[in-house]
Amino acid sequence: MSGRILVVDDERRMCEWIDTELRLRSYEVQWYTAAKEAHRALLHDEVDAVLTDVRMPGTTGIEFCRQISTEQPGLPVIVMTAFGSVESAVAALRAGAYDFVVKPVETDLLVAALERAVQHRRLQRQGRALAETGDHRLYFGDILGESQPMQRVYAQIARLAPTHASILLTGESGTGKELVARSLHRHSRRASAPFVAVNCAAVPEALLESELFGHAKGAFTDARQERQGLFVQAEGGTLMLDEIGELPLAMQVKLLRALEARTVRPVGSDREVQVDARVISATNRDLEAAVQDGRFREDLYYRINVIQLDLPPLRDRGTDILLLAQRFLATFAASTGKTVTSIQPAAAERLLAYPWPGNVRELRNVMERAVALTSDASIAPVDLPDRIGQHRRQRLVLDTEDAESLVPLEQLEKQYILQVLEAVRGNRSRAAVILGLDRKTLYRRLKQYGVET
To answer: Which of 175, 184, 245, 390 sits CB 3.0–4.6 Å from 283 for a disulfide?
Structure first.
């Protein structure tokens, strides 16, 4: 079945003609000669798209379209308007219509519009299914990934969320530290209280103390009224201090006191305010090295780093790259109304080969660009930026100049074959393709290494 379409037109012959044409193309059709009857049907039956005439007695197509966009937002409505009636088409789009076709209707144009609308609806459902799935092998809240590194992250979140311990999230920029912090909050006993996040690097140094601790009225120029700081705003909940490694030393002293005393003093005030917020810090810097260099206080480091949770870079997450790419594709295709549904194998190969220095954030931007540029139903290498579309895996480099540490070629070959096999999670067919071997040869080598086939 191509899709379920609800048709409304006050001319019975028009409904019957559309019904015949669409059923020939494997659509399931319900039709009505009044919008009121069609509206009643929509209360009980789920459809993929609505096709309605504009000019009808009683409830007009514009009014019906507005009704649907209010009650069932996201359900695509295509309106049929008379030739030359630009005003009707504009009014329909303003009322929430997905598209319009001109009467007398050309079958090919109508079918093309319906195909786009049905695909748009299906992508919306896929996006909801991704968000609502209960399969924690793939998802943990809003975090997506089935690789072993992410399974370890999920296990740590599950163990750490119920505790009150301060947590330091480490990892490269773009690895999803805020998503993890939100997940820790959502699965904690503080979930009903606020989650407040601040990027310490984004707040000017002169305003940082006021931002975190608040200020009294008249504390400085433009302080016309008292303002609560983020510690107080996060009362009972979680405060995320992102890029904490960028805090100036003077501010580090004040933060340490707030964490130890569980009180803050607003700027310009002489009173202490009790606070109860779990602090989750995050950084993409090596704080231990910063401590050694005197750029970060050692006592603060140990205060925020009761438990450290390391997030893996995207390049170490294997086929999670394609899972994430497909999710971003569905999201951007649905938001733009484009019928892009898949990634070509050649493009998928480039995505897997690229090292992703910008991690998940970079992948998201790449997929948004690819969906915007493609004119096909699938993403091809040409739709990817040159740095990815033309990328090839680098040759193997031995990071040593010590002849004593070099190994025989046979041993190096064994190590590499087993590494590839581990990277593809034991999929021998895929490993054979990557290695450029036929499967019999690979099986023979594995038997030689003592690996069961």
So the answer is: 245
The Cβ of residue 395 has, within 10 Å, a number of other Cβ atoms equal to 5
Please give the structure tokens belonging to residue 301: 């480091």
Q: Are 171 and 177 in contact (CB under 8 A)?
A: yes
Residues contacting 150, CB < 8 A, separation 6+? 140, 143, 312, 317, 320
pLDDT of residue 241 exceeding 50: yes
Closest CA to 390 of 353, 336, 358: 353
Percent residues over pLDDT 90 in the chain: 35
Burial label for 161, CB within 10 Å (0-12, 13-18, 19+), is middle
Are 245 and 290 in contact, with CB atoms under 8 Å apart?
yes
Structural contact between residues 85 and 41, judged by C-beta atoms closer than 8 angstroms: no
pTM of full prediction above 0.90: no
Question: What tokens were used for 229?
Answer: 């700081």
- pLDDT for 123 equals 63
- Structure tokens given for 52: 């309605």
For residue range 423-440, list pLDDT tens digits in order: 766 777 777 767 777 777
Question: pLDDT band for position 222 (50/70/90)?
Answer: low
- Over the stretch 293-328, which tens digit does the pLDDT of each residue have? 899 999 999 999 999 999 999 988 888 898 899 889
